[in-house]
Amino acid sequence: MMNRLGLISWATGTLMLAAVSSCGGSDTDPPATAEPSSTSPSSPTTSASPSSPSDAASADATDIVRNYFTVVDQLRSDPGADLKKLRSVATSAQLNAVTTLIDRSRDEGQRQTGTTAINELQVQSVTLDNSNPKAGKVPTVVIDVCWDVSKVDVLDTSGKSIVSPDRPDTGWTRYTVANYKYAADPTGGWRVATGQDLKQTPCAAS
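Above: the chain's sequence. Below: its structure in token form.
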């Protein structure tokens, strides 16, 4: 399977769980279709009042990506935390895959310490086409994230670190953030739908 879900497997030092697929999860949203748009790649706006619907979508999608990393960190750090919290930040293939990842880690008695940092975040494109949500034709924002796990450790049941010494501390992942509820909730309906790890020069560790 291609590395399209953008999951960080911190214990092994690889960027993907190759065996994870969307068929193992419970979410029924179809894969979002992210198509090129005329929106130029840019950093997310920091304005309190975005000047256009595209700017608003970019800002909202950026917020959910940051929340996604926070929620995943929390769930990997606390084995008793409810995995349903993932539904507030992820959907479709990404929800299914990250749920499987965390379930597997918990079954093996693994626990994360530390938090993931986002060193760089770049909005690549925005499309607001909402013509066929049932087929995945929904508004999407494509965002490249350079993450940093230099302060993240993973412990086994005895409290011993199982992180590979060859684990890369930083790397890039391209996320497609989709809003399947755009007509009813253009602001709060954004969720991370897919991710693809990118082969490019990592950003500097924080």
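The mean pLDDT is 84.
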